[in-house]
What we know:
Strand content: 5-15%
Helix content: 25-40%
Number of helices: 4
Low-confidence stretches: none
Shape: globular
Strand order of the largest sheet: 1-4-3-2
Largest sheet: 4 strands, mixed
Number of domains: 1
Distance between the termini: 32 Å
Radius of gyration: 17 Å
Amino acid sequence: MKLSALGYWSSPEVPNLPDPARLVDADWDESERILVSDYLARGQVARQFMGVSRCRLCGSANGSAEMTDGTFIWPEGLGHYVIQHSVRLPRDFIGHIFARLAELDEASVDRSWWMARAFDV
């Protein structure tokens, strides 16, 4: 499996990553920011670390896990950057979120598997 990383920021150890301050977009629509942040918060924990990451913009504790949706992987605190600082993420990723949510909304639900096993516990 290969996951595409996003939301990892430059540091003295890895200076070639983006600086979140350069991605701030104060005009980014708040409702879209909320949807993106909510999606990021609902990811599945992929890895858990012992140290807490700090926000590069305000210094607040920002989580210790990496989250995934099976396609992308991001730091647990990425939603904080989106909501608190209006750090805009790539259009490709936002498009991925909208497509994924639309697929889930339009998915048919087959209850036959559950009905065949619900009483076999």
